[in-house]
């Protein structure tokens, strides 16, 4: 696509001598945190927007979520302003920290442009062109420009192709035969797992979570738990402002839940709680320890990770990208496997992770 559209090219070769700079784009913030993050681009609701907000609050008062902080761009002019704000204020650090997490910081250095793109307030072509120009003008390093452009020109177009070539049957795929129900607290945020509480609370407040929160916090938990992918899809489609089905469904069912068995992504993206801790998750403020896989303080992610490998050991062992992870199962004794399976069962029954909703008086 970059050759075809002459994007970030140096003649016939890629700008900078390589196509992909992901190796430079996996930094966490470290113990000092993200510092002073620029405020997101916010737009006061017009009279028309406020009328719609009032209508939704009246007709759907009992639905999850909140409109009290609605400030998304809803016009072409606002979308262009949001694009320019991203380029000027966030793009330079986008690549370096695109996989990083930090509690209480929903916006970080992401673009927040997906809703405007999916609603056609912005075109993919103009967004790519603006970011490429920013690199040429010295406003952003190549790792950030390449990483962002690949999300639009590469991944977003790939997702579009998956949807339009594989539907309608794609939405019913369930390669791992996952049959669990989505926990009810996904709609309330009433969980004592700090990273999930943070991600779901901001989702319900803003209709937004960045891609690592979606893939490696909410999505990862559902995958490890064994939730039916159609229920995960329904949740994502319901709660996010950018969730137009053609772009949401393949990302959820394929990339996040591996429901298509590898058509879209070559492996299930599974990890223990240590990954979330390493990328800046709120593990220090959580009652669970990501280093433990069994016992009362074991992180549900870590328990469910090992349980996932055990449940799908035979199938995953055939996947070259999963072979090393599956091989690590050999160091678990029979008693350890039983303890993991027992705690995983308690998590699925809702005995671990959920917090009771406070009753109003």
- Rg over C-alpha atoms, rounded to the nearest angstrom: 21 Å
State the separation between the terminal residues, measured CA to CA.
59 Å
Number of helices: 16
- The CATH class name of the largest domain reads Mainly Alpha
| CATH architecture term of the largest domain | Orthogonal Bundle
Instruction: Work out the helicity level.
Output: 40-55%
| Structural classification | mainly alpha
CATH topology of the largest domain: DNA Cyclobutane Dipyrimidine Photolyase, subunit A, domain 3
Number of domains as seen in the coordinates: 2
* Name given to the CATH homologous superfamily of the largest domain: DNA Cyclobutane Dipyrimidine Photolyase, subunit A, domain 3
Looking at how many chains there are and whether they match, the oligomeric state comes to single chain
* Pattern of helices and strands: HEEHHHHHHHHHHHHHHH
Shape: globular
Poorly predicted segments: none
Strand elements, count: 2
Arithmetic mean pLDDT: 95
């Amino acid at each position: 696509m970059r050759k075809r559209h002459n994007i970030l090219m140096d003649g016939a070769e890629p700008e900078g001598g390589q196509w992909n700079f992901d190796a430079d784009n996996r930094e966490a913030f470290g113990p000092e945190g993200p510092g002073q993050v620029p405020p997101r681009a916010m737009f006061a609701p017009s009279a028309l927007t406020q009328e719609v907000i009032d209508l939704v609050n009246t007709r759907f008062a009992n639905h999850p979520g909140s409109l009290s902080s609605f400030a998304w761009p809803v016009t072409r002019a606002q979308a262009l302003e949001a694009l320019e704000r991203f380029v000027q204020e966030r793009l330079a650090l986008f690549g370096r920290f695109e996989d990083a997490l930090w509690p209480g910081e929903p916006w970080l250095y992401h673009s927040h442009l997906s809703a405007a793109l999916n609603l056609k307030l912005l075109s993919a072509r103009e967004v790519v062109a603006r970011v490429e120009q920013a690199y040429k003008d010295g406003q952003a390093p190549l790792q950030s420009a390449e990483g962002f452009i690949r999300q639009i020109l590469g991944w977003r177009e790939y997702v579009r192709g998956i949807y339009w070539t594989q539907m309608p049957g794609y939405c019913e795929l369930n390669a791992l035969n996952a049959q669990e129900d989505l926990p009810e607290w996904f709609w309330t945020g009433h969980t004592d797992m700090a990273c999930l509480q943070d991600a779901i609370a901001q989702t319900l407040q803003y209709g937004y979570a960045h891609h690592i929160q979606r893939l490696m916090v909410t999505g990862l938990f559902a995958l490890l738990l064994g939730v039916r992918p159609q229920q995960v899809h329904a949740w994502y489609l319901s709660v996010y402002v950018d969730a137009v089905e053609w772009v949401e469904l393949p990302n959820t069912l394929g990339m996040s839940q591996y429901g298509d068995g590898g058509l879209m992504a070559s492996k299930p993206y599974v990890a223990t709680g240590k990954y979330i801790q390493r990328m800046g998750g709120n593990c220090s403020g959580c009652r669970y320890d990501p280093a433990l896989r069994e016992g009362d303080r074991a992180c549900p992610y870590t328990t469910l990770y090992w349980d996932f490998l055990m449940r799908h050991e035979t199938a995953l062992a055939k996947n070259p990208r999963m072979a090393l992870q599956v091989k690590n199962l050999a160091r678990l004794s029979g008693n350890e496997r039983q303890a993991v399976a027992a705690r995983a069962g308690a998590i699925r029954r809702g005995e671990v992770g959920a917090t009771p909703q406070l009753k109003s008086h």
